[in-house]
């Protein structure tokens, strides 16, 4: 794995177990580039981090986009460089990283598309806290329905009485 020069402000927002897979920087000298404060785009195994320094690097805009929040990634190839565009599902603004080398742009787009489709290495170990309760509730609901069906079959076959059925049903519903 290639080692990338990561700024402290980006290093500090990385989650445990999160690694930077690829980084691309805006060109300083090519058309569309920024001489003093080039933008950077980092692709990690969980998200994309966009770093935009301004005022000669004294201030920075750092934003991250989880792969599930990215709706589209595209490239606009020029003669010398390529522009990368990210569209978010929830933000109306487009993230633009201009003046990136052609090879870096292709690699970045490939990694972001893999992340969108869930093919990112070691992303399987990360569970979003927003999704966990929904999945557990869905499983518990399906489990409860199957248990109630089994109870109904036992009652219909005469293995348990109506009173036992109601007691067990109440017990399962209270869990």
TrEMBL record:
The keyword Transferase does not apply. Residues 14-113 form the YokE-like PH domain. Residues 134-171 form a coiled coil. Keywords: Coiled coil. Residues 147-171 form the SHOCT domain. InterPro entries: SHOCT, YokE-like_PH. This is YokE-like PH domain-containing protein. It comes from Candidatus Methanofastidiosum methylothiophilum.
């Amino acid at each position: 794995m290639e080692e990338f020069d990561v700024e402290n402000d980006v290093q500090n927002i990385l989650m445990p177990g999160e690694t930077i897979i690829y980084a691309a920087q805006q060109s300083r000298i090519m058309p569309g580039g920024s001489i003093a404060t080039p933008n950077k785009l980092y692709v990690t195994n969980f998200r994309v981090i966009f770093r935009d320094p301004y005022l000669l690097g004294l201030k920075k805009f750092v934003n991250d986009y989880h792969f599930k929040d990215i709706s589209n990634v595209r490239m606009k190839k020029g003669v010398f460089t390529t522009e990368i565009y990210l569209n978010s599902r929830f933000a109306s603004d487009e993230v633009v990283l201009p003046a990136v080398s052609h090879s870096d742009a292709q690699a970045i787009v490939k990694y972001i598309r893999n992340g969108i489709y869930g093919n990112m290495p070691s992303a399987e170990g990360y569970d979003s806290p927003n999704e966990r309760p929904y999945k557990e509730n869905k499983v518990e609901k399906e489990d409860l329905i199957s248990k109630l069906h089994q109870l109904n079959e036992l009652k219909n076959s005469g293995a348990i009485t109506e009173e036992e059925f109601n007691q067990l049903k109440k017990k399962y519903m209270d869990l």
